[in-house]
Specification:
- This protein has a single domain, classed as Aldolase class I (TIM Barrel, Alpha-Beta Barrel), CATH 3.20.20.70.
- It has 237 residues and is of the alpha/beta class.
- Helix 8 links the parallel strand 7 and strand 8.
- It is globular, with a radius of gyration of 17 Å.
- Helix 3 crosses helix 4, helix 4 runs parallel beside helix 6 and helix 6 packs parallel to helix 7.
- Strands 1-2-3-4-5-6-7-8 form an eight-stranded parallel barrel, surrounded by six helices.
- It has ten helices and eight strands.
- The structure holds the ligand O=c1ccn([C@@H]2O[C@H](COP(=O)(O)O)[C@@H](O)[C@H]2O)c(=O)[nH]1.
- The ligand O=c1ccn([C@@H]2O[C@H](COP(=O)(O)O)[C@@H](O)[C@H]2O)c(=O)[nH]1 binds next to strand 8.
Amino acid sequence: MPALQPVADPRDRLIVALDLPSVRQAEAIVGRLGETVSFYKIGYELGYAGGLSFARELIAEGKKVFIDFKLHDIGNTVAHGVASIAALGATFLTVHAYPQTMRAAMEGKGASPLRILAVTVLTSYDEADLAEAGYAAGVEQTVDRRVAQAREIGIDGIVCAPTDAARVRGILGARGAIVTPGVRPAGSDSGDQKRVAMPGDAIRAGADHLVVGRPIVAAPDPAAAARAVQAEIAAAL
Ligand SMILES: O=c1ccn([C@@H]2O[C@H](COP(=O)(O)O)[C@@H](O)[C@H]2O)c(=O)[nH]1
């Protein structure tokens, strides 16, 4: 696993999830967030509604972009999909933490600076959800096994719940980025997230970057909500 890269701009610790149905709505939120936010995540909803062209625009304007497509397919398809995203100039791309998929993704990114993040167990899953999906092992055991496999493969980073971050850091050591969704500022609704923590707790547990979507994007004043998360991050560093 490559050495951990220091986060040069403290604003980069916060990644805002642009889970919105149109580029027009995403542009409006990015406009309201202005210089407060430097790093955006584009997932299925915006990605399938013109979000990749919008990602190019954000990158051209100097923003960092995380493409959260959680790839998982046969190796050839994953490798070529990753190569296409690498050409976009994105900073992060997710794949599911299956060994064949992770190896293919690392092959597909070639020498590009794109960093591949392996998604361990979704933050919307608890023990019952994993059992329902047919896994015999529990959440902690599954996360730990996938992180150990990711480390062996040399993946660039891990996506995990903030509640797993301290254990994940213990397995990774000082190498590899830890990115945690499932982050909720005090008083905000968890929604469908089941393994959550507050921003300061996620940072103290070892997360390098926090992903926050609805608590910022749906806030009456998104820039104020983002600044409050950034203040909590700064206080925990
Ligand atoms: O395990 C995972 C992996 C990815 N996500 C993504 O993060 C954001 C979280 O959004 P909130 O509105 O802050 O809940 C969302 O885009 C997910 O697709 C995740 O939540 N958990």
